[in-house]
Amino acid sequence: MNADRTMREVFEPVHPLFFPKHHSGLDHPCPGPGDADWQNWLGHVFSGRHITRRTDRDNLDRNPASVRKLLVKDVFASGLVGAVDFPDVAKVLVMRHPLAVALSKQAHRHWHWTWSPGAFLKDEGLATGLLLPWREALERIEQEGTELQGLIAVWAVVNRIAMCSLSPSDLPILHYEQAVRNPWKVLSQLSDHPLWSRLISANRDEVLAQSGHVSFVSRDSSTIPGDPLRWKSKATPAMHTESDAVLDALGIGEWHTESGWPHEEAIQTWRAAQRPPLQ
User: Fold this and answer.
1) Residue 1 within any structural domain of the chain
2) CATH number, domain at 253?
3) Is residue 253 in a domain?
4) Is 24 contained in some domain?
5) 69-73 and 7-11 beta bridge pairing
6) Does the pLDDT value for residue 101 go beyond 60?
């Protein structure tokens, strides 16, 4: 998205270890509508006033302070997409295969993760609201599931919260696998969105040249860009069985194909079914 370096970059401003003030025990905060404290905080972030040592780490020596656009990436902010009510903010949900995400978290155990859905169920607003259709299944997973199944359930929860907070037109999905395989095609499709069209300005050569670079947060890991399905070599049949059991119990087992690619039609059909009927 920022291959031409026309945006400032803010990485995980809501990370619970770097901004614990409003988390209240939930690593993926979900403030209610009209929460003044969160609106003030989000205004601080999107006005460009949130500057930390994690800001512009991939923008070094590129004069980022002179640009007029801002790119915010935060895996802990899925519950905030519906609370960001600023007219010039475009949103996108980056989705990756749940088993790939779970294995990555297990490989980086020293990083800060939510390991099971229990924390979400303790939030009464979520338990009786967005998560109510899944509540019984999530409680069983919390009580009886393995560590891997807990991580799969967390993946499902954070994606459900985000997708049920906004309509498909207000929150497009960018699939990690497709972005790694064909970054220019994916970015071109995203730039057709009315809000993103004003923000994405990198050309094809810039995008392809930048796509092979690894961000600062992954430089000390074994991440190698280029193969979005590299996780499959580490996933045993038993892991697939555990993962499938959780996804099927939640009714989202068809979101990805057996080969690991996103099934976009199934995901969009599910999203459409969650939307309230038109009045």
Assistant:
1) no
2) 3.40.50
3) yes
4) yes
5) parallel
6) yes
Distance CA 245, CA 187 (A): 33
Distance separating alpha carbons of residues 272 and 134, to the nearest angstrom = 17
Query: Which range marks the domain in which residue 158 is found?
Result: 7-274
Residue 75 lies in a domain: yes
Tell me how many domains the chain contains.
Answer: 1
* pLDDT at residue 61, as a whole number: 60
Half-sphere exposure of 81 (CA within 13 A, CB side): 25
Q: Residue 65 — very low, low, confident or very high, per pLDDT cuts 50/70/90? A: low
Q: What is the per-residue pLDDT across 131-163, written as a single tens digit (0 to 9) for each?
A: 999 999 999 999 999 999 999 999 999 999 999
For residue 88, what pLDDT band results from cuts at 50, 70 and 90? Answer: confident
Instruction: Summarize the chain as % helix, strand, coil (round to 5).
Output: 45, 5, 50
Nearest to 233 by CA among 113, 115, 107, 141: 107
Give the pTM.
0.90
Mention every residue, 6+ apart, whose C-beta is less than 8 A from residue 143: none
- Tell me how far apart the alpha carbons of residues 61 and 44 are, in angstroms, rounded to a whole number: 24
